[in-house]
Write a structure and sequence with these properties.
By secondary structure, the protein is an alpha/beta fold. It has one domain (3-341): TIM Barrel (Alpha-Beta Barrel). Helices cover 44% and strands 13% of the residues. The strands form two sheets. A six-stranded parallel beta sheet has the order 2-3-4-5-6-7. The chain has a four-stranded parallel beta sheet with strand order 8-9-1-10. Strand 2, helix 4 and strand 3 (106-111) form a beta-alpha-beta unit. It is globular. It starts with a helix and ends in an 11-residue tail after the last strand. Bound molecules: S-adenosylmethionine, iron/sulfur cluster and FE2/S2 (inorganic) cluster. (3R)-3-methyl-D-ornithine binds at residue 139. Keywords: 4Fe-4S, Iron, Iron-sulfur, Metal-binding, S-adenosyl-L-methionine.
């Protein structure tokens, strides 16, 4: 694709938030050295829609038990080498309260699919809401619809459930025993009952192509996502995809920039996975359309045990260290940490 054609497509995306599958595919397949204009227009759109504020979401990794066997993930059930842990209710609440003291306005409760009792999650939501007022995002995998409803009624604001890859055959190959339809139905249901929904993908999973990533973006538009995230695939030695190739920074940035242009109102995180494969990865994403960072606040004694992928950053840091580090990164870009909860821009 020549520079003239790239400019035409980027301008169209910037002005109308519309591109068809072939056009998205062509941009994703183009060399990043030809795509300065794409990144620049995504940054401009981010500035117009979100301004210079960056929302922080504090992640508590509350359990590394998982009943699923996703082909790429170190927490998969069949990884017998991983030492598992599950935080007690009180510990989760205390960690959330500490995050609120550090100034966080949102807490993300994340875990493997370990069937943490739904009633206890409800109590945790109630207690965090009552004592901190923080926005609460749940990222507990697929649960039954009654549990989603119970937690929404208890005050949970958002649900984060990545669709991971829009190709049904690859989705079902990499998620044995799971169903693509159920994933998508869960997201739709969550939206219907009032959650702000976050989804997204793993970039460069083996077999993933620019065409599939174009479908990922079109599906994300259809789902009217409130947040869309993309992190590069990082192979883990105790998984079936151990010989896969690490995803690239370039493809992640292209996807991030197109996410901003095609879903202008979405919140877009600069992901930890991108920060893991490139020391400057989160900075680069923040300059390509991203407006959110999700620092870890889990006690450091658990961090190495939540090993989704190897060499994950921040495993030796404490919550206060990450808060300070991320504040420095954001300030170095001339941006600032938001003082509000950063609810969906679609509802404002
Ligand atoms: N169990 C929940 C779920 O699957 O939705 C939440 C926790 S799961 C560890 C969070 C995310 O980690 C997944 O959505 C997936 O995109 C990401 N992930 C897992 N393994 C990965 C890997 N090897 N490389 C990059 N991202 C990975
Ligand atoms: Fe479990 Fe989530 Fe990892 Fe899949 S991605 S194995 S559901 S923790
Ligand atoms: Fe954890 Fe930088 S965000 S050390």
């Amino acid at each position: 694709m020549n520079q003239f054609e790239i400019k035409r497509l980027v301008d169209q995306a910037y002005e109308k938030a519309v591109l068809d599958k072939e056009e998205i595919t062509a941009l994703l397949a183009a060399d990043i050295s030809d795509l300065d204009y794409l990144l620049q227009k995504a940054d401009q759109k981010r500035e117009e829609i979100c301004g210079d504020e960056v929302h922080l979401r504090a992640i508590i990794e509350l359990s590394s038990y998982c009943k699923q066997n996703c082909y790429y993930c170190g927490l998969r059930k069949e990884n017998e080498k991983l030492e598992r842990y599950q935080l007690e209710k009180e510990e989760i609440i205390k960690t959330a309260q500490m995050a609120a003291e550090l100034g966080y306005q949102t807490v993300v409760l994340q875990s493997g699919e370990d069937e943490y009792p739904a009633a206890e999650i409800t109590e945790i939501i109630n207690e965090i809401k009552n004592t901190t007022g923080m926005a609460i995002t749940l990222s507990l995998g697929e649960r039954d619809f009654a549990a989603y409803k119970l937690w929404r009624e208890a005050g949970a604001d958002r649900y984060l459930l990545k669709h991971e890859i829009a190709d049904r055959a690859l989705y079902e190959k990499y998620h044995p025993g799971m169903s693509f339809d159920n994933r998508i139905e869960s997201l739709k249901y969550l939206k219907t009952i009032g959650y702000q929904i976050g989804s997204g993908v793993i970039i460069d999973l083996p077999g993933q192509t620019p065409e599939i990533m174009a479908e990922d973006l079109l599906l994300s538009q259809d789902l009217e996502l409130d947040m869309i995230g993309s992190g590069p695939f990082i192979p883990h030695q105790q998984t079936p995809l151990k010989n896969g190739k690490t995803g690239t920074v370039e493809m992640t940035l292209k996807f991030t920039a197109l996410s901003r242009l095609l879903l202008p109102l979405a919140h877009i995180p600069a992901t930890t996975a991108l920060g893991t494969i490139d020391d400057e990865g989160r900075q680069k994403a923040l300059l390509a359309g991203a407006n959110v960072v999700m620092p870890n606040v889990t006690d450091s004694k658990y961090r190495t045990k939540y090993q989704i992928y190897p060499e994950k950053i921040c495993v030796n840091e404490e919550a206060g260290d990450c808060r300070q580090c991320i504040g420095g990164i954001i300030a170095s870009l001339g941006r600032f940490v938001s003082q509000d909860k950063g609810h969906s821009l679609r509802q404002n």
